[in-house]
Amino acid sequence: MFKHLFFSCLLLAVVLPSTVWSAPKGEKVGTIREAHAAFKNNGNCAENAEWKDEAKSNTKFRQLDCFKTDNGGAVRLELNDNSSFSIAENSLVIIDNLVEKDESGAFRIKLDIQKGYMGFKAEKKKGHEVNFSTGTAAASIRGTEGFIGEYEGTFFASLKNGELSVKFNGDDPVTITGGQTVIANKEFPNHTIVLNLKSSGDLGFAKVLVGILADTTLSVDSLTSKIIQADNDYQEKLNQSNESIPAKDSVAQQPVADTQPVADTIGQQGAIPQIKFSSYDSLRCAANISISGLQKNSKARVKIYKDGSEVADMEVKRNIVWRSALSSGIHEYEYVVENEAGRSSFKKVLGCYPMKPFSVKVFGKQYVRLQIPPPPPGVADVITQTLQFEIRVPPENDPIVLNKVVVKQNGKVILQERLSQITNLKYEIPVVLKRAFKNRFDIEVIHKSGYSVKTYKIYEVGK
User: Strand 84-87 to strand 257-265: parallel, antiparallel, or no bridges (unpaired)?
Assistant: First the structure.
């Protein structure tokens, strides 16, 4: 759809002579700070290449290295000036070029987003230049934070701060600033949509945005409406959970219900310790909890309850921050800390969706040939069947862990359910078949972890 599409996105770019930027191939240019479900290659960056080397945290990466992430995967790259680039799940990015200009440490880096999206936080320093490219767009930024990517030919970029200019197919440039998101597709009436969103630049919201763009049946008005509503929902959940904007992309799809921390005075001496929730990671199944206000040479007891039952009881002798393990599924957790002076606690409903294989079983043979005689003259030729399949998600076998179920007939969506719309794991769908045709039904089921399963069934009806 975007064969002749080209964007030019510029943010205070400094263009320097090309001779300044020469650098030896394979030079070490930065550090992998975090890596999960990700692989690294050098030179052979095709998606179907053999990706053997797992990307490892706290190791160096080189010019021409490329990174590929799986469902739930992520890679955070850091340069020597603390600029960082976060490659999201299901993405493929090439470090096309990175070279230092001079002894001051100024650099120019080019990142080629072959697939997916990534976040960026570039330090605003003199001489720095950061370039991105996708299949349909090019961007140059300095001193800004946000995310950029492309999904099925639709380009998007979003800024927490800074400025970005987008030029599309000879149109006048469209400039966005901090707090704005641009989405571009030549099928749009004016080619671009610019929205003021509270979640602009938040990498967690990027995953929500990609999920909306996946529905190619939406009109521009419907797409805009869904994005605005998703922005409001995302912010509401952040506010409810009393979190700062997260570094990971797991918050947007979580069920959140909580009560504010409460303190009950038990004694009059000493300070009452406080226990607080800061964030959680639904894929790694851990909540970040902190205890503060505990005085020197004192101690307190911490208890954790899951769905009303005690699951942990421990003693602490200092203020701490720790990652508390969560159980698979959705549960209500209560965290309590108490000493002789008093007690504080909070409750939260948290979801844990570790990446687990599951299956979709289609009943009957996968390829069915039907020989049905034509009807008598004057009678409608209607051929019906029931497409039956079952989703098996051990150990929960609960549809609440699913994000999306899609069924297509010959490429056209005939059933699509999301989140709370998914109420069972067994489906029986009446379908109408065409005569003298291979009727193909594609089924895709996506877990909340991002893990997906695809299968199909074909009914071939004779003449």
Answer: unpaired
Which string of DSSP letters, residue by residue, matches 359-421? EEEESS-SEEEE--PPPPTTS---EEEEEEEEEE-TTT--GGGEEEEEEEETTEEEEEEEGGG
Residue 252 has pLDDT above 90, yes or no: no
Place of tokens 């954790």: 304
- Distance, in Å, from the CA atom of 62 to the CA atom of 42, rounded to the nearest integer, reads 8
pLDDT in tens, 167-217: 666 666 777 888 899 998 888 877 888 898 999 999 999 999 999 998 888
Helix/strand/coil for 205: helix
Examine the domain organization and report whether 226 and 85 are in the same domain: yes
- What are the tokens at 322? 């720790």
* DSSP reduced 3-state for 209: helix
Residue 409 is assigned to a structural domain of this protein: yes
Q: Are 265 and 272 in contact (CB under 8 A)?
A: yes
pTM metric for this prediction: 0.49
247 found inside a domain = no
Give phi and psi for 371, each to the nearest 5. Answer: -115, 100
Residue-averaged pLDDT of the chain: 80
Q: How far apart are CA 286 and CA 171, in angstroms?
A: 47
Look at the block and give the residue holding tokens 């606690």: 345
Helices (H) and strands (E) in the chain, counts: 2, 32
CA of residue 339 relative to chain centroid, distance? 40
The whole-angstrom separation of Cα 60 and Cα 39 is 14
Instruction: Supply the CATH number for residue 285's domain.
Output: 2.60.40
Q: What is the pLDDT of residues 223-235, one digit of tens each?
A: 988 899 899 888 8
Using alpha carbons, select from 405, 449, 419, 326 the residue that is nearest to residue 72. Answer: 449
